[in-house]
Design goal:
With 275 residues, this protein is mainly alpha-helical. The protein has 8 helices and 4 strands.
């Protein structure tokens, strides 16, 4: 990635603000106005990104922060002197951290995808609807989803082929943890529940994720050649999450930049003024 997602979000905010000033010169229509009104929301998206990064950092070295009985001390802020710090099982701390991370990851993806869809998708594909806003998988990755037909062909094909697999894996993980709690058909996802097991994934657990990702109609070769995606994801979920995050951030940055560029270019033609 030439720039981080946070930098791309900051650039998008500046682009939308500049476009909003120029848009005041002509009647740009309701859809353009709604799109440009997204500018103030970008600051909150950056807060989501910061929270996601904090959730990821909670997972780093978690297995090294245990006490002798395999409990983790959890503390937010400074508790009163009389209060004892909260102690929870390692497996619970791991589950809470992973679910928080995946929830924030996909909240951010939904917000960015919704804005992009408003600009780059067709009217019947969610562009005019906040309730049926564009989603990353349905509109930009899954070719068998009817909603993908509402996305510009060049954009859809390039995102799917370069980033489809890591996006699908992350989405499969999100659904597995948020909806299934990390267990499906009595198959445990993690290799064990103690700190010794760290974030190791069972063979059957990874197979469930892989099979779920394939249902979004992508393949493991739908990835950039230089992506360095883990070949043995069972060894550590955190390595897999980091790889998916890197690729998803790149895909979201490209989509965001494409949408902002389309807005500013269209405004330039409408007004005869460079944006």
């Amino acid at each position: 990635m030439t720039r981080s997602l946070d930098e791309r979000l900051e650039a998008a905010k500046h682009s939308l603000d500049a476009s909003a000033v120029v848009a005041g010169l002509v009647n740009v229509g309701d859809q353009m106005s709604r799109s440009l009104a997204t500018g103030p929301s970008v600051a909150y998206w950056r807060e989501l990104l910061t929270a996601r990064n904090a959730a990821r950092d909670l997972l780093v070295g978690l297995e090294k922060r245990i006490e002798q009985d395999d409990f983790v001390v959890v503390q937010f802020g400074i508790p009163p002197r009389s209060a004892s710090p909260m102690r929870i099982k390692y497996s619970h701390a791991r589950l809470i951290g992973v679910e928080a991370y995946l929830s924030l990851t996909w909240s951010l993806a939904d917000r960015v995808s919704g804005f992009v869809g408003r600009v780059l998708c067709s009217a019947d594909g969610g562009a005019f609807s906040d309730q049926g806003a564009a989603k990353l998988v349905s509109h930009f990755v899954n070719p068998n989803d009817s909603l993908s037909k509402s996305t510009a062909g060049l954009l859809f094909d390039s995102i799917r082929r370069a980033f489809g697999w890591p996006i699908a894996v992350s989405y499969a993980l999100r659904n597995h943890f948020i909806h299934d709690g990390g267990q499906q058909h009595e198959v445990d996802f993690f290799a064990g529940n103690t700190a010794i097991d760290e974030f190791k994934i069972t063979a059957k657990g990874w197979k469930n994720i892989r099979n779920r990702a394939v249902t979004y109609n992508v393949l493991p070769d739908n990835i950039r050649k230089n992506a360095n995606f883990p070949t043995t994801p069972e060894e550590d979920l955190r390595v897999l999450l980091n790889a998916c995050e890197r690729e998803m951030d790149e895909a979201l940055g490209i989509l965001l930049g494409s949408a902002c560029a389309a807005l500013s270019t269209h405004l330039s033609f409408l007004t005869g003024t460079d944006v």
